[in-house]
């Protein structure tokens, strides 16, 4: 049950178990509790000092896995197949129906989904794949995993999404694909990106890790690109802890993706116990990226809640927007008129000279915060391997130095939302 005041579920014996944050007392060796805002020190057996993390008044995230998911898990665990089987097929069908797309292939992560989509689209060693520098490292890594060279592009200042003009400027004779990242819950300018791709004969893999519920001109992720990749990581709008999926339009590509995710098998183990059993074969080289029925069972139940989750996220997002728009020293990202937001992240932009102080102030008040993201071109590995330097992507560098992500999830209570707002006010607008 979703509520603005908290969530709860019942245990198997019927007793009530609170799934709201329980603030356990962290105790030192002398039995003294470490309260909020403190970081006590203990010594381990070797005498080294251990840091005990300060308690949180408002965690950065709390998942929404409740009794429905646990019931489905028990059902799967009592069945014959706990790896890829009926529950996986059920989730794939449900998710494809939700997106209004013909095919979905469930895998182990969004990174795996993007890698396989690039391979299914025909990317080969020596090809280039253009993507945003403002993204999680899994996006460019997927291009590397597919044997391609990731080519980074700068972003639109208002939304944080990849700039179509920067994409076009990065196209070379070796470019094969584009991965637009639908950042924070808002889809990229897919009309412009589709036009760029068509002009240069490129295919599109949409990184929709943040944007399951999002739309651009009324169309969900996957309707503009040849492929769309989704994440079900712990902090995502629906979650199975880990997991991902690929959506596509073409039946042959769906069959190819299904083989690529499991060592090139032409059929799954569960299929060998049906009347359609045939001797299995390995038709190609593949990977071990198949989702199991345990994760799929959780996702089946999570997907049923997606509209209720989304309504709660929207309410919190709008309250934050109302409050922060009126504060000095804070800037917010804009939402384009063509976009329907998925409300995955709420990021505020502050003075880069004060960003760390603001984050520290929020953490001292028990607010969980994050940075989304440090631009990829500033990561040591990418600087050393590809020669990226500061100043190459100025918009992403500015946003990356200013951004702070705040708690935004359905289990956040109204009281907690107001506490976050007041804490931001106190740290950004000190008396």
From TrEMBL:
Active site: 236 (proton acceptor)
InterPro entries: DegT/StrS_aminotransferase, PyrdxlP-dep_Trfase, PyrdxlP-dep_Trfase_major, PyrdxlP-dep_Trfase_small
Highest taxon above the source species: Bacteria
GO biological process: polysaccharide biosynthetic process
CDD domains, per the entry: AHBA_syn
Entries under Pfam families matching the protein: DegT_DnrJ_EryC1
GO MF annotation terms: pyridoxal phosphate binding; transaminase activity
Keyword ATP-binding among UniProt keywords: no
Positions of post-translational N6-(pyridoxal phosphate)lysine modification: 236
Keywords, sorted A to Z: Aminotransferase, Pyridoxal phosphate, Transferase
Region (Disordered): 1-47
Family: Belongs to the DegT/DnrJ/EryC1 family.
Annotated protein name in UniProt: DegT/DnrJ/EryC1/StrS family aminotransferase
Organism: Eiseniibacteriota bacterium
UniProt lineage: Bacteria, Candidatus Eiseniibacteriota
């Amino acid at each position: 049950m979703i509520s603005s005041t908290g969530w709860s579920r019942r245990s198997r014996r019927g007793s009530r178990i609170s799934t709201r944050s329980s603030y356990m007392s962290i105790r030192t060796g002398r039995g003294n509790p470490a309260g909020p805002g403190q970081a006590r020190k203990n010594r381990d057996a070797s005498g080294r000092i251990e840091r005990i993390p300060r308690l949180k008044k408002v965690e950065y995230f709390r998942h929404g896995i409740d009794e429905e998911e646990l019931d489905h898990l028990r059902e799967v665990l009592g069945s014959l197949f706990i790896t890829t089987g009926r529950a996986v097929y059920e989730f794939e069908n449900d998710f494809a129906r939700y997106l209004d797309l013909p095919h979905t292939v469930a895998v182990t992560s969004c990174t795996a989904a993007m890698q396989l989509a690039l391979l299914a689209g025909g990317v080969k060693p020596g090809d280039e794949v253009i993507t945003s520098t403002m993204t999680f490292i899994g996006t460019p890594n997927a291009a590397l995993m597919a044997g391609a060279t990731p080519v980074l592009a700068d972003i639109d200042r208002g939304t944080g999404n990849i700039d179509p003009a920067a994409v076009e400027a990065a196209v070379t004779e070796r470019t094969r694909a584009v991965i637009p990242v639908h950042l924070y819950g808002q889809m990229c300018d897919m009309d412009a990106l589709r036009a760029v791709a068509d002009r240069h004969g490129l295919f599109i893999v949409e990184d929709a890790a943040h944007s399951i519920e999002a739309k651009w001109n009324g169309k969900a992720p996957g309707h503009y690109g040849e492929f769309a990749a989704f994440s079900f990581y712990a902090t995502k709008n629906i979650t199975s802890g880990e997991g991902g999926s690929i959506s596509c339009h073409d039946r042959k590509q769906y069959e190819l993706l299904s083989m690529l995710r499991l060592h090139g098998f032409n059929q799954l183990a569960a299929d060998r116990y049906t009347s359609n059993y045939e001797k299995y074969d390995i038709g190609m080289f593949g990977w071990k990226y198949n989702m199991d029925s345990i994760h799929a069972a959780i996702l089946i139940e999570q997907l049923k809640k997606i509209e209720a989750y989304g309504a709660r996220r929207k309410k919190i997002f709008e309250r934050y927007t109302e409050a922060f728009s009126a504060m000095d020293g804070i800037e917010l990202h804009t939402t384009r008129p063509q976009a329907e937001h998925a409300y995955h992240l709420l990021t505020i932009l502050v003075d880069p000279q004060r960003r760390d102080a603001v984050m520290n102030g929020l953490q001292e008040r028990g607010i969980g915060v994050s940075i989304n993201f440090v631009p990829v071109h500033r990561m040591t590995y990418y600087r050393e391997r590809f020669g990226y330097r500061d100043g190459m992507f100025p918009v992403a560098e500015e946003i990356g130095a200013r951004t702070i992500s705040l708690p935004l999830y359905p289990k956040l209570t109204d009281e907690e939302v107001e506490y976050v707002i007041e804490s931001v006010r106190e740290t950004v607008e000190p008396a």
